[in-house]
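Please review this one:
***
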Amino acid sequence: MDVGGQAVIEGVMMRNKERFAVAVRLPDGTIKVKEEKNSKFPKIFNKFFIRGIVGLGYTLYDGVRALIWSSNQNLGVEEKLSKKEVITTVSLSFLASAVIFVLIPFLSAKYLAPSGIWFDVLDGIFRVGLFVGYLLLISMMQDVKTLFSYHGAEHKAIYCYEEKQPLTVENVKKFTRFHPRCGTTFIFIVLLLSIFLFVLIPGGFLMKFVGRLLLLPVLAGTGYELIKLSGKYHKNIIVKILISPGLWLQRITTNEPTDKQLEVSIKALKAVVD
């Protein structure tokens, strides 16, 4: 059974094809687990390439739900957002990402090289640099350090499960915190692909900018298929070389977890695989 996950506030969310579970460490030290069905993914979209585009939206939707629930548990509230509010949150996140990682690099590159191949090269370099810089900056925050530790705990637990080892703290802690199917690696693959794909966009300033926005779904679909392949063949030497930049980036987005954080990730994982 394929499983994936993400770090949340003081916890971990794990998911399979049918449902997801969120486990969080409460202020009193206990672990609380919530299980829900995944948002329904229409089978008509479960096709090569298309599944990556549509699936990203569903994954973000459930991810935001998990984040909000985990935050509420640590604040001691039981606020439930409507479907409309969650969709609005996801949409605003997309908009903010487009401004930060598309518009700002685009304008910066245009200022230094208004046209030609150097414009596209600088645009790509600025985009990757901005993403890495952003990760380095937020990784200095204490709350984010904790989040990244749970991210590491998520990866270790999934690796242990994939290697068919019993899900105990002693077993899980032996595995690496770097995983080929990580969302960090996915984003980095998308950023690298964008450098080569955006060069092909013809026209002037407006055409190039609109073209970048229109190609975002193409990048998402292609990135999904590549990350899926890398997870399947991650022991292949060529695949290892290709995904190595993404794995290196996980040195920023994951930290070594504590035993207590591993306990939380194991609880979440067991809820979707038992």
The CA atoms of residues 61 and 83 lie 9 Å apart. The longest helix spans residues 83-112.
